Amino acid sequence: MTASLHTSLNRPLSLSARIGWGVGVILCLGIAAYSARYLLNPPQTPEQALGNPVGVPWLVVHIGGAVIALLVGSFQFLPGLRRAGRPHRWMGRVYVAGCLVGGGAGLILSFGSFAGPIATAGFASLAVLWIGFTGLGWRAAMQRRFVEHRRWMIRSWALTLAAVTLRIYLPLVEISDLPFLPWYQAISFLAWVPNLMVAELWLSRTGVVPRA
Ligand code: HEM
Q: Each residue of 83-93: pLDDT tens digit?
């Protein structure tokens, strides 16, 4: 599989990028498996759903869609799979469906967050951008504008990875003995704004630019 890892259609990934990709996939699979516990044992009451008044049924819907997006998306950037054509297109449709379902339910959940309006603002902006970027990426692919497709999907993926960064930051807050509520509110933004900035920086530094 490694022989088919490239940043562009022709350029092989460096060793450090391959290692980064491998670590990223392991984190994505780990978070997906950890999140799937809600699907195996669905919350029956809002208390079991993070105290979110709309947590039943929306938390399970959210996690169902988001887990699919996280699992499928990890493999969509493999050029070998992309060149194969059909698997990339089918997995892409599943990824888009996962993002739209996960994002739609995430948007509904954001209004019931136990952490109040600041967390609502953080999660709701994330949900709207996640749905928007993914939709723009899908539309660009349908219109065969593949450079724009890649750019939007890289942004969409940076937001999908909010699931990973959020679950790195939360334990750090707990072990640092920081006050949970304000940090949870901050993390509703910190989980995705830096991801998006890194994606934009990467897009501006690599050759993934639309034709003039
Ligand atoms: C990127 C867009 C996403 C948005 C807007 C979003 C939004 C939310 C919101 C609003 C909540 C409820 C928080 C509360 O009530 O305070 C939540 C919980 C949760 N989300 Fe997401 N989420 C996103 C991505 C993901 C992804 C990709 C996964 C991974 C599979 C995921 C897994 C979970 C889990 C497991 C919970 C329950 C809390 C926990 O056990 O950590 N989310 N999400």
A: 778 899 999 99
